Amino acid sequence: VQCSEDAVMAYQAGLAGCVLSNHGGRQLDTCRSGIEVLPEVMDALKAAGCKKEEFSVFVDGGIRRGGDIFKAVALGASGIGVGRPVLYSLASYGEKGIVRMVHMLQD
Hints:
With about 110 residues, this protein is of the alpha/beta class. The chain has helices at about 5-10, 35-45, 65-75, 85-105, and strands at about 15-20, 55-60, 80.
């Protein structure tokens, strides 16, 4: 989902949630990242009568460091995806890189 209208349509259609993503910028390279769209999506869902426990919103895009996770959750996200950091860590350092990345995000 890339806009608040689509998130509201998903909620009204009875879905359990949605993922805010620009697909890593590969297909939609001029679109905003998921974390940039999040505030307007949460506002639109609230205006549509949605309660947080009724509809999950996941953010996949724009998460680069641990602080971004806190921002997304504070803005209403149920969860986040960390695709690029995982790929970079794995490609550079293998399994140990993944473990280090998780520790860095936790710190």
